[in-house]
């Protein structure tokens, strides 16, 4: 190669490097670096369900604040454990920076999450737990605690000869297991009055129908409690439509608009309120911390509170019952003080 050609080539490479350097500096000062990629896999995506809508809204707000590229994947129903397992493995195969998962099953979702962790994918659980400790964070309501609060208040209002029916959502989910445990703990010895526990697979109409059948089998039931939005709303609607308001005291978990209306009208005696917006927000926050190598807590309580028919319109309770989804999640210190 001629000397002049070598000099020209060297000059060209130097100029190319300089141009690249200038472009990079311009990007650093004027552009925004691509953020981490996180995949959120809830139990389902249902615009009519205010719990999951709030979880997703919280995750979206946090994603904007932390410059996260957020993707959503979900099974058709909360009972589609196999479908969710396939999605978890599919998500892990995309090699995201992290996956947020709300396990459909306490036991049957564990294997797919373990496989994702073994592939080096960072995982954060939200809402529900699995039956194996994989040293991954869980952001959720303390479900035993929320059940216990409900059970303790139910105990205060028990009639002389209590007969209790419980309407759960998905049998075998960690939330159903823990909430039933908490209700029984809150009731204490009065838990012996529980006649039957039925499940609705987190389908409103099924909750309505199983409650009707429950009351046909046990017409002496005078207390009913639901475990989530679907089961609580279906149970309370059945009690209302049967003309049993006041005769059958009703309790629930979550705070959809329809549930709040039933609380205002006295069909419910109390609702135990979760904070799903916080759950989604803090799930993203914990995932970002793990991506950046920060140490994170293995359990973060997203908060809960009991609201009764007599204290709906206090300022504090109105904020919980009618949340403004555009606001930032409650600080961890405030959450844990509830």
UniProtKB/TrEMBL annotation:
What protein name applies here?
A: Periplasmic binding protein domain-containing protein
- Assigned protein family: Belongs to the bacterial solute-binding protein 2 family.
What CDD domains does this protein map onto?
PBP1_ABC_sugar_binding-like
The reply on keyword Amino-acid biosynthesis is no
Can you supply one Gene Ontology CC term for this chain's record? cell envelope
Question: Which keywords does this Swiss-Prot/TrEMBL entry list?
Answer: Signal
The principal localisation class reads other
Organism lineage: Bacteria, Bacillati, Bacillota, Clostridia, Lachnospirales
């Amino acid at each position: 190669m001629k000397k002049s050609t070598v000099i020209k080539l060297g000059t060209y490479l130097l100029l190319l490097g300089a141009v690249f350097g200038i472009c990079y500096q311009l990007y650093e000062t004027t552009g925004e670096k691509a953020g981490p990629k996180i995949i959120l896999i809830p139990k389902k995506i249902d615009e009519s369900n205010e719990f999951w809508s709030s979880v997703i809204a919280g995750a979206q707000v946090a994603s904007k604040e932390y410059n996260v590229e957020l993707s959503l994947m979900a099974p058709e129903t909360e009972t589609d454990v196999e479908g969710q397992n396939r999605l978890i493995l599919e998500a892990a195969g995309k090699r995201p920076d992290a996956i947020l998962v709300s396990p459909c099953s306490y036991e049957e979702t564990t294997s797919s999450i373990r496989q994702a962790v073994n592939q080096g994918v960072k995982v954060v659980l939200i809402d529900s737990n699995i039956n194996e400790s994989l040293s991954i964070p869980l952001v959720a309501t303390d479900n035993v605690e929320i059940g216990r609060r409900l059970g303790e208040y139910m105990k205060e209002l028990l009639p002389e000869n209590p007969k209790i029916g419980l309407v759960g959502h998905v049998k075998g989910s960690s939330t159903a297991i823990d909430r039933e445990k908490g209700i029984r703990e809150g009731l204490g010895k009065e838990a012996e009055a529980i006649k039957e526990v039925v499940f609705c697979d987190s389908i409103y109409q099924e909750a309505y129908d199983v409650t009707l059948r429950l009351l046909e089998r046990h017409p002496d039931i005078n207390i009913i409690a639901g475990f989530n939005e679907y089961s609580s709303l279906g149970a309370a609607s059945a009690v209302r439509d049967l003309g049993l308001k006041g005769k059958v005291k009703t309790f629930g978990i979550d705070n959809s608009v329809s549930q709040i209306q039933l609380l205002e009208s006295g069909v419910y005696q109390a609702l135990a309120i979760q904070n799903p917006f916080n759950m989604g927000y803090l799930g993203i926050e914990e995932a970002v911390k793990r991506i950046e190598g920060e140490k994170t807590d293995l359990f973060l309580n997203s908060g809960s509170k009991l609201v009764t028919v007599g204290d709906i319109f206090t300022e504090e309770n109105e904020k919980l019952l009618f949340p403004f989804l555009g606001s930032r999640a409650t600080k961890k210190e405030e959450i844990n003080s509830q």
